[in-house]
Amino acid sequence: MPDPVVNPVQPTTPAPGETPPAEPIEFESWIKEQPAEVVAAYQEHTAGLQNTVKATRDERDAFSKQVKALTTQAAKGSDLEKSLQDLQGQLEAANRRASFAEDAVKPEIGCSNPKAAFAIAQADGLFTKNGAPDWTSIKAAAPELFVKKLPTPPGDGGEGSRTAPTAARTMDDIIRRQAGVSR
């Protein structure tokens, strides 16, 4: 059986008069080139998320350091070993909370309040055997946390009801009609 023909990828050079293909944009370099107002708006918009990520990572790193320090000192059956086991449990809980939040904000999950969803999942034990959130059970337990947001209708007063708005009678129209003058 003959080998399939494979066309090797060759670098393309633009023909005379054509513009070369655009290089991929790196976000960090792109944002630095933006006006100060755009950079400030971006930083303000993402500040909460960055603080949350930093706090979660700091918490995880602190637990890891404590576990390492205690591991070297632990003797079998001692109080220190029990403390180490408690810290390992806390570290696992922090990691579970972080991965839960990462999943909850995905568009396909559509959770509007990850903190409340985690509390419900924790209280009701709504996790699979491997520790992943059981989103079907969580949605059944708290459907109000997964309500799809309806698009805002256009500004026309009758648009939401799909009927044309009725002509509003103003005081000016009433006075004109009483005076016998019409528009």
- Secondary structure tally: strands: 0
- Largest pleated sheet: none
Task: Give the strand content.
Answer: under 5%
Q: Structural class, please? A: mainly alpha
Average pLDDT, to the nearest integer?
78
Give the terminus-to-terminus CA distance.
89 Å
Low-confidence stretches: 1-11
Rg from C-alpha positions? 31 Å
The helix/strand order is HHHHHH
Percent in helix = 40-55%
Number of alpha- plus pi-helical segments: 6
Q: What oligomeric state do these chains adopt?
A: single chain
Morphology: elongated
Give an overview of the whole structure.
The structure is a single chain. This protein has 183 residues and is mostly helical. Among the domains are: 34-104; 111-147, no CATH class. 53% of the residues lie in helices and 0% in strands. The chain has 6 helices and no strands. The chain has helices at 27-32, 36-73, 79-104, 114-124, 135-141, 171-179. α2 (36-73) packs antiparallel against α3 (79-104) and α3 crosses α4. The radius of gyration is 31 Å and the shape is elongated. The termini are far apart.
